[in-house]
Amino acid sequence: MRVHSKKKLLSLLAATMVLGVGLVGCSGAENDGNADGTAKTENVYKEKYNPEVTISTVWGVDPALKFKNGESIENNIATKWAKEKFGINIKSLWSVTDTNGAFATKLRLAMSSGQEMPDVVVLGTENEQLAQDMIDSGMFAEAGPLFDKYASDSWKQAMNQDTNVWNQYSRDGKKMGIPVLDFAYNHDYVLWVRQDWLDKLGMKAPETMDDLEKVMDAFKNKNPDGLDKVVPLSIGFKTSMNTWMGDPSWIFGAYGTLPQQWNKGTNGSLEYGSVQPGMKPGLQKLSEWLKKGYIPQEAALWDENKTAEPTVAGTAGMIPGPYWMSGWPLQDTVKNAPGAIWKPIKIPAGPDNKAMRHGTQYTNGVVLINKQMQHPEAFFTYQNYLFDHYANAKPDSDLSNGLFKGYDYDLDADGKLMSIDKIPGGYVNSIRYLLVRDGARIPDAQMKALLSLANGAEPKTRLEKDVMVNYGKGTPAAAKVLMEQKDISMKDQFTGPTTPTMKAKKDYLDKIESQTFNEIIYGKQPISAFDTFVQTWKTAGGEQITNEVNEWYKSVEK
């Protein structure tokens, strides 16, 4: 998923804010000698390598990523750090500006044409199918034994917060890729509402879908700022009905299902949300709201970032999105609408007091290690340090303020953390220079720190101080609202590798799903078209995919 660079900035800033333990020895390391005094094979794992070792990789460079001091992705503060700190040379085989899937295209070409493959490949969830294909290529080592032997205790503890993270990168019980961890609840969402509009109208925040419709109607037809063009609820579904901002999936959640993910059914098996009965009233609602002007007329053409535009312009009344949106983009609304106040509220409930929203998986990609890599242990030297001194930073850690002074953080004359927009020469998201995207994340660390602040604690940790300096003031409060409804967050229950029928049929099934839903919402087909779609979906491969998904689910269910 490619998102707005500033959203990345704030989401990824969180990666520079976490808690701590010092570096521990790698698990399973050998001693220097036997008890009887005879020599043992030297442990290949080092905290610093002399002579130096090399790790090769490839880069898909975000077009929004900035560089300073004449640096590049191949030669920068992070590559110099790895060389000086660990005796590790980061060698770039190639790099490409990652627009329109250029990175995945080049990597596929390299793999199919027999070009040299890198020691370490890091793929995000936007390239999930490529990750599966690369695992199946046989070029990459079984990663589980390497992780068991070399990963530090803090990294292992982070991974153990949800052992299901290994599922989609495993084959026949073998762990073939190392999951890249993400923060828990990072893309779960609250509903953000213009509190100043509610106050002027003498209305309360909506608690039910009926309340929501009354608020949307008032925002549009009795707009307190006297606006003619208003987006009462800013949502979009160009890319997905189940996404991270401007997301409409909770509307279906009010009727008992979540589209485009696998949910646990009443009989205990997994069922695809988009073909469940709860979709029909949800589609009818969206169609009604479109006709009434409650949602954007261009919703089918709006991606996540587009839904943010009317919020910043001061012409939107509500938008669903993550707790961190108080920083970006919502804090910019006051530039166009002085006096605008955004408040996070709970997701409204449906007719049967039902509410559901999608939940954030603990993974954000995978690390693959080449079978031909000469020093796989060196990768763990590098990544262990980040988990022990960055994700889990003690106050006296050299990474307790961030990665690189003058790049992603700086300190004022009193030694206090500066706002990133005051960094001399400009802020650089140097976490994107690291081998692994997002650096190192411990899933529960971010939310723990946010709730601590929300409950009145003084900021002490790196995470807490950074939130106070660089995030919107409403961020901790929004996190608390989110967690008050944590039971309605539903993760996609299918976390396994792509099934055979998915590979063959999923693109077609996704296409007819999107087309049918859009045509129903825009009134080009009656609601009965949903039933026809369901039958087509089942016979065109969906039923077989369901069988394959549940066969996998039974194999891993605990």
Short description:
With 558 residues, the protein is of the alpha/beta class.
Characterize the structure shown:
The chain is of the alpha/beta class and 558 residues long. It is 36% helix and 12% strand. The chain has 18 helices and 15 strands. The protein has helices at residues 5-13, 77-86, 102-112, 128-136, 143-150, 153-159, 195-201, 209-221, 249-253, 279-292, 304-313, 333-336, 376-391, 445-454, 462-470, 475-484, 500-521, 529-556, and strands spanning 53-61, 88-97, 120-124, 170-171, 174-175, 178-181, 190-194, 231-233, 262-264, 270-272, 316-321, 342-345, 357-358, 363-369, 489-490. Strands 8-11-7-12 form a 4-stranded mixed sheet. The chain has a 3-stranded antiparallel sheet with strand order 3-14-6. Helix 14 (445-454) packs across helix 16 and helix 17 runs antiparallel to helix 18 (529-556). The longest helix is centred in the last third of the chain and has 28 residues, at 529-556. The chain starts with a helix and ends with a helix.
Provide the descriptors you would attach to this structure in a database record.
558 residues, 4-stranded mixed β-sheet, alpha/beta
Mean pLDDT: 91
Termini separation comes to 30 Å
- Given as residue ranges, the uncertain stretches (5+ residues, pLDDT < 50) are 1-39
Shape: globular
Percent of residues in β-strands: 5-15%
The largest pleated sheet is described as: 4 strands, mixed
Number of E strands? 15
Counting DSSP H or I runs of 4 or more residues, the number of helices is 18
Order of strands across the main sheet = 8-11-7-12
